[in-house]
Write a structure and sequence with these properties.
The chain is α/β, with parallel strands linked by helices. The chain has two domains: 352 residues, TIM Barrel; 63 residues, no CATH class. It contains 16 helices and 13 strands. The strands form three sheets. Strands 1-2-3-4-9-10-11-13 form an eight-stranded parallel barrel, surrounded by eight helices. Strands 5-6 form a two-stranded antiparallel sheet. Helix 1 packs across helix 3, helix 4 packs across helix 6 and helix 7 crosses helix 8. The N terminus and C terminus are likely disordered. Keywords: Flavoprotein, FMN, Monooxygenase, Oxidoreductase. It comes from Pseudonocardia oceani. InterPro entries: Diverse_substr_monoxygenases, Luciferase-like_dom, NTA_MOA.
């Protein structure tokens, strides 16, 4: 079965960093070097809004990559994501430069308190006119833990247990002011109705939160939730909470299988599967001719990422020090058994590369180069062909597009690919709403404390 018509969701995958998710991006000749200037992020945001993207969202880590060799030295030396700016400051700048583009940020449920996250996103939602989104992550490694005074990160299931309680508390904090709580009657002197501002009095396994939030209910009610869990527990978590599910499917065949499985989990949670968008990450390499695009692709694949940077990033994602290994070491069963964070990555890469012998070089390149997701290469029409094939075959509801370099990768998409998608009727010609929920076709949720709800103040 294929969908005949419909609107693709497009999300720009960002880093408040010296690089995009592609760790060699800073070396590309036309990459902008002013990543410490707010105007850098404002320029990119304006390009994306010109292209009517649904949103830009920023990945984050709370430590430099420092598992490799027990030090951040190699990440610093080779520019392997050593810079991570504070996202709320960056998104505030982007909000001021745009009027429709959604603005998403990654905030960890492992190291931030729920009240802080709820207040930050409620504030961003108000100041941007209803354009905030929260990418929920559980954090991955011991380097992050040590920056927050913890010896090591929580185990996989414990992180998700904590995240379940965390997101429940955050959503109820967003609801703690009813929509009509603000009175603002100057004559009577009544600012707000205290009967419509609610304490949570939450006492749980991980958090004690009194509430209410110090920010009135966000314009969107609740900012949309982004989640990227790939494990069984992660997919179940996404099915319960996420509005946008960010995946890493290297081929259309794998994406088709993942799409059906994730939508079934959403339905089992009693939610509408059509209201939840499944979005694989993809790279685009666009050229005025196919030959130009292929030449650019070769540069990105072979020339810009230092091998040690690849191993440093592999060490970060698996929470294992690979400094004692060579790039051409074979990934053996013994290695897989000894590295707790590597099994899922190995399984995914093997599905991508087939039966060939797997080495650390191949594994590391899937973390640091353009090998980690589908890659759409060619002219604007050719790239649009590939994207449309995935979309119409229901392998996805759209894409999280990762940049090979900033801002040129997104400029190429907006200039050469978006007009083709519009011509085919699979992407919007213009924004028809103002909030991110409106872009995504999502209803505004009712507060759990609203008078029509059963169990008020429960």
């Amino acid at each position: 079965m294929t969908r005949d018509r419909g609107q693709m969701t497009l999300v720009a995958f960002m880093q408040a960093s010296n690089v995009s998710v592609y760790s060699g991006s800073w070396r590309y000749p036309s990459a902008a070097p002013d990543f410490l200037d707010l105007r850098y992020y404002q320029r990119i945001a304006r390009v994306l809004e010109e292209g009517t993207f649904d949103l830009m969202f920023f990945d984050d880590r709370l430590a430099m990559p420092s598992i490799y060799g027990g030090s951040p030295d190699e990440a610093v030396r080779y520019g392997a994501r050593p810079v991570k700016l504070d996202l709320m400051a960056v998104l505030g700048a982007a909000a001021a430069a745009t009027s429709h583009l959604g603005l998403g940020a990654t905030y960890s449920t492992t190291y931030y308190p729920p009240f802080h996250v709820a207040r930050s996103f409620a504030t961003l939602d108000h100041l941007s006119g209803g354009r905030a989104a929260w990418n929920v992550v559980t954090s991955v490694n011991d380097a992050e833990a040590r920056n927050f005074g913890v010896d090591q990160h929580l185990g996989h299931d414990a992180r998700y247990d904590r995240a379940e309680e965390f997101i429940d508390v955050v959503t109820r904090l967003w609801d703690s002011w009813e929509d009509d709580a603000l009175v603002m009657d100057r004559e009577s002197g009544i600012f707000a109705d205290p009967e419509k501002v609610h304490e949570l009095a939450h006492a749980g396994a991980y958090f004690d939160v009194q509430g209410p939030l110090t920010v009135p209910r966000p314009p969107q009610g609740r900012p949309p939730i982004i989640q990227a869990g790939q494990s069984g527990r992660g997919m179940a978590f996404a099915a319960r909470w996420a509005d946008l599910i960010f995946t890493a499917d290297p081929s259309r065949e794998i994406a088709l299988e993942h799409y059906r499985a994730q939508k079934q989990l959403v339905a089992e949670e009693g939610r509408d599967p059509q209201a939840v968008r499944v979005l694989p990450m993809a790279y685009t390499v666009v050229g005025e001719t196919e030959a130009i695009a292929r030449e650019k692709e070769e540069i990105f694949l072979d020339r810009l990422v230092h091998p040690t940077a690849s191993l440093a990033l592999l060490s970060e994602v698996t929470n294992h020090d690979f400094s004692g290994h060579a790039l051409d070491d074979v990934v053996t069963d013994e290695l897989i058994d000894s590295v707790s964070g590597i099994r899922g990555l190995v399984q995914g890469v093997r599905r991508h590369v087939g039966a060939q012998q797997l080495t650390l070089r191949t594994l590391a390149n899937h973390r640091a180069t353009l090998l980690q997701g589908p890659r759409f290469v060619g002219t604007g029409a050719q790239v649009a062909d590939q994207m449309e094939e995935w979309f119409r075959s229901e392998a996805c509801d759209g894409f999280v597009l990762a940049a090979t370099h900033f801002p040129g990768a997104f400029e190429d998409v907006v200039r050469m690919v978006v007009p083709e998608l519009r011509r085919r009727g699979v992407f919007r010609d213009e924004y028809t709403g103002t909030t991110l929920r409106e872009h995504l076709g999502l209803d505004r949720p009712t507060s759990v404390f609203a008078r029509s709800e059963v169990g008020v103040d429960a």
